[in-house]
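Handout, section 3.2

Students often ask what a structure token actually looks like in practice. Rather than define it abstractly, here is a full record for HxlR family transcriptional regulator. The first block is the sequence as you would receive it.
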Amino acid sequence: MEPKDKHHDKSACTASMNAIKDALYVLNGKWKLPLILSLQEKPLRFNEIQKSLGEITPKILSKELKELELNEFVIRKVFHTTPVTVTYELTEYSGTLDSVINELREWGMQHRERLVKNRRKDVSLEETNASPGISA
């Protein structure tokens, strides 16, 4: 893959790489962005988040929520009811990820479409090659 601009100096490349590493460090793993997406409509309780994400374990969800809270994407609110109610909601700062999420969504849809299309081609080629007595 050709770089778009071949005239980057070493310090610009290093700064760019460090910025990407920082972003990946904060958003690492398969649950952070889906977790943020699950909270976009409204604040949710722990069990509601777990149900919306499906296969996540309570231990991992707890860890991910704590990390998102430390990085100022999520606020944990405790209501002194009986029993105590705890909700999680997105901060205003989490909105800075909107363009990142939208770009990832678009790319993911294109990528899935490409793979499905190429699988169909591969299956068609395998069927053609496996059919005895049929010449092209």
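Discussion prompt for tutorial groups: The helical segments are 10-27, 32-38, 46-53, 58-70, 98-130. How would you have guessed this from the sequence alone?
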